[in-house]
Every structure is written in structure tokens, then in C-alpha cells.
Amino acid sequence: MRISPVIVCLLALFAHSAQSDFIPRPVRFGATTDSEEVFGPSRARLTMIGEGATAKDPKDNGLFRAACKVEISDKEGYPTRFIVHLPERGFAPMGKKAGRFLSILWGMANRRFGRECARLRESSIDVWMTASGEAGGEQVNTNLYIYNVNSDRSGIEWARELAHEYGHYLLPGTSGYTSPENWSNGLLGERLFLSWLLDDVNSSRIDPDEVPFVKQADLADYCAKQVEPLIDQVRNSGADRSILQRMDKLGMNALSGLFLYADTTYGSGSLMRMLEFLPRERSGKIRGVDFLDGLIGWLNQATEFFVVAPGNRPVKVLIPSGTLSNYFFAGRLYDPTERKKATAKAFCIGRKQTNEHPAWQQITLVNNPWWTIVFTREPHP
Q: Residue 234 is inside which H or E element, if any?
């Protein structure tokens, strides 16, 4: 659920943040100590605040007598990124679990977006975990609300709730949907962040013992139901403009699918770069279909971009206009340093194609489960 409009992430110069090394550590979350460390994508510190922790939330003026401060390693040291407010000290274990999970979400977003997403560093986020009310969540400006922490939630429900509300704050989206809710970026937050988490656990970038609430199997089950079908819909047929213009559940799912497809096909940075090319109505409102036009606009002017596609099956890929040289590499090579080390396949080095207009083109690559294609734009004659 969302009340106030999301300010779309401001664009800055592209900068990938280096991921932390995989460092196995014993499980600490939920312990009775006042502080603990998180060895996630970005190292973090969780500290229970004693004196001076009492605060009132800005929406309902409720009283919170304890808090967990979440500081995350960055170039400027360990700035505070979240403060998890709790009704009283007895909720400390749950507060630290929430803080730990949010620190991992922040680290994954930082690794993929870097400073292209200004909202990552714009402000410290206050998380208000209440002991009453109807179970659910809400985002109001820089405040995330998790209602009735005493309610019976499964681990995956906790992960989805936190990812959902942080998605409302951090990710681009649009409003006016009739179902399942007004804004699109909360559901996108669940799907995008949990798919990142599964990928990072599978690739050993994150130690699964550092992650609260969910196991690898929980994430795999969720992504098989909520993420992969939406990506495959775009891979099989391309993005459907008419469905993206709908303001119902089908339209919201199509927009989620477009973002998830762009993330896994062109890299996470594409989600930030397309924002610069969003068309705007006179009213200033952004529609779901505008994000497709933003993606096309970015690709049409990019001097170089890459495509990651599954092998041994036909898939649709959005190819921009212009004359492009392409180089094929085996594997999923999102990191530019990995692509520099890789050797292009000799059978297709430097192959050129000219497209008068951007279009969804079907490709089939064989003999490897994944391929990376680097496209370089030829200068105009």
C-alpha cells in the first residue's frame, strides 16, 4: 500500500559498487546482544539504541520505546541507512531481523545501481513496526510501516512485506491501478529484490546463513511462481503495448514483467538509464507503457549495451535502430570486468546488422545454457 508519490530515482553517472567478498560467518540474527554485524553485499552494523530511543511516528503519533540502528559500509564510513523503531525492548530480535534483511536489500541495490539511484543515499529510512492494527505495510515518504508484528507471518511473507515497502520507496513506478493496489513499485520490489537475493545466494555472493526469514528453497519457489513466468512472457512474445496501458492487475503484471526482463536481459543499470528517456504527458503523469518507450529511447542512443539471453531456445530481444556490431560470449556476464576477460566466439566476432527501426527480434543461441551479446553502435557515415 502507498500514500505519497514516489519520486523517481535521479540519474547520476554510472558507477558499479564493488561487491563484498564471500565471508562465511556464524548466524547472529535474533541474538540477545545489543550489536551484531552483517556480512552481506555491503557490510553492515546493527545496534540496539538504549537511552534516547523513544520516538513518535509522524503518521499516527504512536509511541515507540526501542530502536535498532542499521549502519552500512560506504565510501563515507558507516552512515545510518535505516532506523527500525519498536514498541518496546522485547521486540529487539524481530527488529534486528528486519534491519538485517533491509541491509541486504540495500547492499544488493547498491551493487547493481550504484550512485545512479540517488534515493539509495538521499535519506535515512525510518521503519515503524507496530504491535497492533491489521497486518500489512505502508510507505509514507521516508517512513516504512509494518503493522502488527505479532501477527502470524511466514518467513517468505516477512521477506515480501519488507521488500514490498522498500520497493515503494526506492524503485520507479506509476499509480492509478485498480488492482491489486494503486502503485506498481511495491509488487515490483517483492519480485525484483527476491529474484536478486536468489541469484546472489545461488552464486555464493551472499552467504545464506546471513539471510533472515527465508531459505534458498523459499526464494526458488517464490521466483518460479512470481518472477520467471513474467520474464518468460516477454521473452516469448515481446512487451505488449496494449497490455502495458491497462490499469488493472494484468497491466501491473505486464509492467513488472518489463522491468524484470530489462533487469535480467540488459542488466540492472537499465532500470535507471531508461528513466532519462521517459516521455511525459502534459499532466506530468507517467504511464506503464512510457517505461517501454524509455527503454527504447535509451537503447536507441546507447553506444554500447549488452544482452544476456538463455540458450537452446528461441527468445525475443528488443534491438534498437542503427548499425550495430555484435560479439558473442558464453555465460551470463553482467560485470564488465568479466566481459573483458572473456573470449568472443570466433564464429560471430564483429558481425554487423542494420535496423531501420527498433524491433523485437527472435534469436536462438545453442550449445550453451546462457549467452551474452555485446552490441556496439557504428558511427553514422
A: helix 228-237
